[in-house]
Design a protein that fits this description.
Helix content is about 35%, strand content about 20%. The protein is an alpha+beta fold. The structure holds 1-O-pyrophosphono-5-O-phosphono-alpha-D-ribofuranose (PRP), glutamine and magnesium ion. Its EC number is 2.4.2.14.
């Protein structure tokens, strides 16, 4: 999960950067690790600012002043392949052919094979462990095949067809071609979301936006918006006038349409509508279905007990928890107060930080817990970091019995398209029964949503299937045999590097030579990924 956004403004004299900055503020929840903006000026030159940190820290006023041009793209990163090094912040850039910048949301499951192809067949240099850099170079190599000094829309659509034929996995992308325009495209299964919208100006001209979530489009006055379809691309020319306008093309036939159900469970903002499905309404339904499950299960396991109060685990579960309480006819109380200055803990880069952040983020009010049987409701239990701490805090605050309900079914498999989890052993539900999970997090009982119920909460007449591999272990694109092992290897290597540098204040002499050959600088040092965040 990352946030991506692209804008082309009709007025060629207006800079897109301020609106790109405003826009990423609506997508920050999709990635807290790194942020980047690239714009393109009237002479076809790119301007870029990217680095580790939240958008508001990376995009300072002085850096923004350098970003000129009426079109641009952005990225908010939650690293899911490679590492969180500054050199892997996006957008990525290649100078040949034509000058291309790319922002990518998703993961490529055949990145190892693609990297080999780039090296051995088309001789392109890959400078990081990011699969997004691979994707950019595959697109560049496809465009190169035309061997033209200038490409047209048809060439770009054909090149994207070539990309979609060889690349497997999840990818929603915004791309900027120097002096040409902004391109949006979505993988043939539509795993990650992408929307397109138009905003009419007073003089009749039109601005265009492509973004990960509808909330950005809506907030910026873009209407007439729609989802990019699986396997579809849109090209927005840099100068939409004199009859020039965006062009859509179904570049490859769509495959099984399977948006990631985790967008509805956790990733997306509740006020977004993705693929015609309201995230908010789906979460309300999750609360309803969960309540009927709980009533049934509690009757069997604890017939003598009753739930006194429903308490959400802020923030994401709130919508479902309220509805769950209404359905159960039990009072809803905000027993945990959230510190508004702490971000999402799940997408923080390391376990130690995640664990301490849960306590800093949430504080229990004794008055709401003391002497009561509480039902804590969360959207999901993944590593169990949050639930373990939360249950302990509820008990410390005097709760009698603590039941823990999850709006998603048990997560027992990797999420290969967008959660930073290579090791299934890190999942609290891995190889455990529900009672063992309850014991592991210290709860008296856990309640899980059924998968069929979760699908029912989200589906519509036009979207019936979802990517649910995280619950079943079966993924819509399949996975290369060694893909997960390779991700694990890179992660372990990054962790060793980090441990060494944390201990010594810098890389120490005892570090394994194998690690040193792949050192990840915090500050971006490569010329073609040049950042201004120093
Ligand atoms: O089992 P875990 O590994 O702890 O992961 C699950 C938790 O992480 C997320 O919260 P997060 O703090 O990221 O964001 P939120 O404030 O949007 O709920 C999610 O909403 C769960 O609470
Ligand atoms: N979460 C994402 O979409 C990440 C995109 C890409 N795989 C990266 O790690 O940078
Ligand atoms: Mg949460």
């Amino acid at each position: 999960m990352c946030g991506i956004l692209g804008i082309v403004l009709a007025n060629e004299k207006t800079n897109a950067a301020p609106e790109l900055f405003e826009g990423v503020m609506y997508l920050q929840h999709r990635g807290q690790d790194a942020a980047g903006i690239a714009t393109c000026g009237s002479r076809g030159r790119f301007y870029q600012c990217k680095g580790n940190g939240l958008a508001r820290d990376v995009f300072t006023q002085s850096r923004m002043n350098n970003l000129v041009g009426n079109m641009g793209i952005t990225h908010l990163r939650y690293p899911t392949a490679g590492s969180s090094a500054g050199s892997e912040a996006q957008p990525f850039y290649v100078n040949s052919p034509y000058g291309i910048c790319l922002s990518h949301n998703g993961n490529l499951v055949n990145s190892i094979e693609l990297k080999k192809y780039l090296d051995e067949e088309v001789h392109r240099h890959i400078n990081t462990d990011s699969d997004s850099e691979i994707l950019l170079n595959i697109f560049a190599a496809e465009l190169d095949k035309f061997n033209k000094s200038r490409v047209n829309n048809q060439d770009i659509f054909s090149a994207l067809g070539g990309v979609m034929d060889v690349v497997r996995g999840a990818y929603a992308c915004v791309v900027m071609l120097a002096g040409f325009g902004v391109i949006g495209f979505r993988d043939p299964n539509g795993i990650r979301p992408l929307l397109y919208g138009e905003r009419k100006n007073k003089d009749g001209s039109i601005d265009y936006m492509v973004a990960s979530e509808s909330v950005v489009l809506k907030a910026h006055g873009y209407d007439n918006f729609r989802d990019v379809k699986p396997g579809e691309a849109v090209i927005i020319p840099k100068d939409c006038k004199d009859g020039k306008k965006p062009e859509f093309c179904q570049v490859v036939p769509p495959r099984e349409f399977a948006p990631d159900i985790f967008e509805y469970v956790y990733f997306a903002r509740p006020d977004s509508v993705l693929d015609g499905i309201s995230v908010y309404r789906s979460r309300i339904e999750m609360g309803n279905k969960l309540a009927s499950n709980i009533t049934e299960a509690l009757k069997k396991s604890h017939p003598e007990e009753k739930i006194d109060v429903v308490i959400p685990v802020p923030d994401t579960s709130r919508t479902s928890a309220i509805q769950c309480a209404v359905s159960l006819n039990v009072p809803y109380r905000e027993g945990f107060v959230k510190n508004r200055y702490i971000g999402r803990t799940f997408i923080m880069p390391n376990q130690q930080e995640r664990r301490s952040s849960v306590r800093r983020k949430l504080n229990a009010m004794e008055s709401e817990f003391s002497g009561r049987n509480v039902l804590l409701v969360d959207d999901s239990i993944v590593r169990g970091t949050t639930s373990k701490e939360i249950v302990a805090m509820a008990k410390e605050a005097g709760a009698k019995k603590v039941f823990f309900a999850s709006c998603a079914p048990p997560i027992r498999y990797n999420h290969i398209y967008g959660i930073d989890l290579a090791d299934t052993k890190a999942l609290v539900a891995f190889n455990k029964t529900e009672q063992e999970i309850a014991d592991a997090i210290g709860a008296d009982k856990v309640f899980y949503q059924r998968l069929s119920d979760l699908v029912d909460c989200c589906k519509t007449a036009s979207v019936k299937n979802f990517e649910v591999g995280v619950f079943t272990g079966s993924y819509v694109t399949g996975v290369e045999d060694n893909y997960i092992q390779e991700l694990e290897k890179i992660r372990a290597q990054n962790q060793r590097l980090k441990d060494h540098s944390d201990r010594a204040g810098s890389i120490d002499a005892s570090i394994d030579v194998d690690d040193l050959v792949d050192i990840k600088p915090d500050v971006d040092i490569s010329i073609y990924n040049r950042g201004d965040y120093t």
